[in-house]
Every structure is written in C-alpha cells, then in structure tokens.
Amino acid sequence: MAIKTGCFALINPFTTLDKQLDQIKDWGFAYADLTDNSDGACLGNEYGFTSIASLDANPFELKRMFESRGLTMTSVCAHANLLDPSAPWRYGTEQIIKAVKLAGAIGVKHVITAEGDPKTEFGEQLSDDEAIFTICEKLHAPLEVADDYGVKILLEPHGRVTDSIPLLERVIDNCNSEALGVNLDTGNFWLGGSDPLEFIQKFGTKIEHVHWKDLPEEFVSKRGEMFGCGMAAIPLGSGVIGIKAIFNALVESGFDGYSTLEIAGEEAVLKSYEFLKSLGAE
User: Fold this and answer.
1) What fold, for 4-279?
2) Which of 29, 47, 185, 189 qualifies as a FRET site for 216, CA 20 to 30 Å off?
C-alpha cells in the first residue's frame, strides 16, 4: 500500500467549494479534505465567493459533491482555538463536535484539529500546565463523541504546545482517549523548532494523516518563533525541510494512509504531486 496524496479544497480565491473540487479533479487527484467550514449559513456561499462548507449542512450532500467528481473526502478540517477562552465567535469545542458528527455520518474517519495561536492576553499568558489543561478540557467532550461515532480526532502541530514533542505527549497522555491520534504537518512542526523525523520516531502508529509543506530558506530565521504558516508557496522538495527523508521515514514506520498538500499555486501543487509520486506515493 502506498501513501495516498490529496489536496486542500482551498486553492482558488473567491470560488465556491464545488469549483474548488472541479479544479482538484482536473489536476488528477483522487482525494481531498473538507477544508474551510463554519456553523450555520454563510453569505459568501449564497453569493458565490467563498468555499466555506457549513457544519450544519446535510453531510450526504457534501459527500455527493465529492463523489460526483470521483473524489474521496479524506478528512474534515476543524482547526480550532484551544487556548483562548471559549466564546460563541471562537472556533472550538462546539464546532469540533459538529465536524465529528458530520464526518461520522458519511464514513469519514478523521477530523483534524489544532491548538492555534492565542489571540488574547489570557491565552498568551498560560503556563505550560495551564495550556495543556485547557487543550485537554476543550477536547474532552469532542473525544467522547468521536469515540461513539467511530471517528478519530487528529491533533496537528500548530502552536507552542503541539510543536513540542514533550508537551504534545503530555496532551495525549492526559486526554487518555483511543479516539485521539495525530496529524503530522511537516511545515508547522519544523517551523515550530522541532524535527519531523523525531515526531515520526516518537508517535509512530499514532500518525494517521499528513499535511505536506516545504518552506524556503527565509523561514530559517523564524524557526522556533513562529507557529504554523497556513499554506506553503513552494513545491515540495525545493525547500529546507527535507521532505524526502520525512517521506521515507513515514514509509519505514508503516504509514500508508491519506495525506494532503497544503500548497498554494497551481505550479507548486502539481510539482509537489509529481515529487511525492516519484517517491512512491499515489
């Protein structure tokens, strides 16, 4: 079995989700994430200038939207703010639960979340122990729901806690849930100051999905000071992260699951896809 390569469904600005999926299909992919999403209705969807999916939509309509283009939905993204205080306008526990229910209804096995960067003084001043507690507290109910729905919540490195192997390990241990796994984001983990190869060695079979990014030389000076970088703008294999070694280490660890290109720009996406296929991905 080979590592399967998909694409973020957030590649062209000011276009709706169906148009994003049309482009992904035309590029030759068979897999894609459900990427940007929110509760309720969205004006941008009504007037055709955003690709946001509603967490309150009929999940089967979303499934049909993917399947009609020959695409498999490999995960539902639910990247959250797990450090700032809970509030109706912050993406957190409630939205993760909705993402889990959506995924479970249509047989998608993975919901990917992250701690995110705090935006408040409260979140910024948390000690390590406090930050770990608030992450675990916000994930507690979603993990219970995920366990019931047969879904795994995958915690992605994207912040000062999850970009640290010792702190991420404490989160996993404290959550103590079979419904929790990890998503390796190659760019985020490297940028946060850690080594993706050590991540693979440490977490092994807990890695159930991969987000691919490579970063250029100018990010070296930001390493350890910047947590998460959204989407990369260069092709895989052309930056400083060492994607080939990471790919080979994943294969050696037994990983043969889904992965997603978090790459912006048609040329960079297609070159990245070809690079991974040259290493043995599909």
Assistant:
1) TIM Barrel (3.20.20)
2) 29
